[in-house]
C-alpha cells in the first residue's frame, strides 16, 4: 500500500479491486479487471498524493464527519478523515456464494483528543463492500452518551418511581459526506445527470440558494455546490473514456458537486496543477438538515457506486 500505510485490497467476483486504508477508512481506488480506476487519487508522479497521517488522502472517498466543510467549529470536514480507524472485521469469500462478497468493517470512536474537539461519546462503523462491479460504503453512527443512573435501580422496589435506566447523555448533531472523487478523462466533457429542479447552495456565491435548471450538468469552470434533497440516484458520465457510473444513496439527502479548477488546484499542495481535469467530486451528504442523534441511538446511511457502462478499452 502507498506510503507504507496499513490497508487491504478487496476483490469482487467480477475481478474488481478496491483499496482501503485504515488511515481515514479511506477508499483510494475501485478498479475493474483491466485496471481502469473509477476513482481519482492524486498521483505520486506529480508530487501530490500525500499518504502521511494525519493529513487526509487527496482523492478516493474521504469521509467528512462529524462536520462537512466549515459547517461548525471543527476543522474543515471534521476529523474522521485524519484519524486512524480500527479494523473490526475482514470478510474474504466466506459467504455461501464464494467470491461473491469481500468486505471490511472499520471502526472509529471517541478518544481524549476527539472529546476535546467534539464533546460526544460515539462509535462509527464503516463497511466497504466490493460486490460484482459495485462498491458499497455504509456508515452507522451511534451516540454512546448513555449514563446509567445507578441510584435508580429498577430491581430495587424501595426506590421511588419504579426505578429504571435513565438516559443521561446529550443528543449529538453532525453533518457528514462520502466525498467521492470520480475519475474522468476530461472534466470539460464529463457530465452529471439527475439534478434538474433541485435547489442548491452555491459555495462560490456566499452559499446563496439557487435552483438547478439543467438536467445534464456540464463543467466548463469551477464548481462548488451543495444540492439539497436530491434524487437518490445520480449519473456521472465520463463521456471521453466512455465509462458511466452511478451513485445510489440512502439517508444522505444532499449531494455536493465540486471541482476546484485551475487556480484552486494550483493552490492545493497535494494536487497537481493539471489534475483538476481528471476528477469530479459528487459527494453523497447530509448537510442541509444536520443529523441530531439522541443518546443510545444509531443513524445509518450508505452509497452504492456502480458501473453502468464499462470503460472503452
Ligand atoms: O481541500 P479539502 O479540505 O479536502 O476540501 C475540498 C473541497 O471539498 C468539497 O466538499 C467542498 O465543497 C469544497 O469547498 C472543498 O474545497
Structure characterization notes:
Its EC number is 5.1.3.15. One of its GO terms (molecular function) is glucose-6-phosphate 1-epimerase activity. It is built from two helices and 19 strands. With 313 residues, it is mostly beta strands. The strands form three sheets. It has a nine-stranded antiparallel β-sheet with strand order 5-6-7-8-19-16-15-10-13, with no helix packed on it. The chain has a seven-stranded antiparallel β-sheet with strand order 4-9-18-17-14-11-12, with no helix packed on it. Strands 1-2-3 form a three-stranded antiparallel β-sheet, with no helix packed on it. The chain binds 6-O-phosphono-beta-D-glucopyranose (BG6). 6-O-phosphono-beta-D-glucopyranose (BG6) is lined by residues 69, 76-77, 179, 203, 224, 256, 258, 283.
Relevant terms:
G6P_1-epimerase; 313 residues; Gal_mutarotase_sf_dom; nine-stranded antiparallel β-sheet; Beta-galactosidase, Chain A, domain 5
